[in-house]
Backbone:
């Protein structure tokens, strides 16, 4: 049967060469799985990023929580103190950036927004 097919292809092609590629269905499984994984990562990449950041922050707070536990605070209370400290540090950094921008005149004041904005009543 293969010889008949090869002979038919040879006579039909003439001087041209024909490339015949036979794919088994099992060879498509890795391609489909890879496409599925890429699609899934594209759908949940934001969640994975948040999870990674949360794990990094949790790991960074372990020494502080351990020190607070040694001083007599419970695990839950030391976690709360650690997270509060982290939020306070983030607030200080944000305030410093805002103050630097405000001194440079970058943020738009409420009057400038009011002058530029148009109120539409419906």
Residues:
């Amino acid at each position: 049967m293969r010889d008949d097919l090869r002979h038919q292809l040879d006579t039909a092609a003439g001087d041209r060469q024909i490339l015949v590629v036979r794919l088994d269905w099992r060879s498509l499984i890795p391609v489909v799985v890879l496409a599925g994984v890429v699609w899934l990562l594209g759908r949940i990449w934001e969640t994975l990023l948040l999870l990674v950041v949360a794990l990094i922050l949790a790991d960074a707070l372990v020494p502080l929580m351990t020190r607070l536990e040694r001083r007599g605070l419970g695990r839950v209370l030391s976690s709360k103190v650690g997270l509060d400290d982290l939020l306070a540090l983030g607030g200080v950094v944000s305030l410093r950036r805002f103050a630097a921008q405000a001194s440079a005149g970058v943020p738009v004041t409420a009057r400038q927004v009011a002058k530029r904005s148009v109120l539409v009543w419906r």
User: Anything to note?
Assistant: The chain has four helices and no strands. The CA atoms of residues 112 and 118 lie 12 Å apart. The helical segments are 2-13, 25-70, 75-104, 110-116.
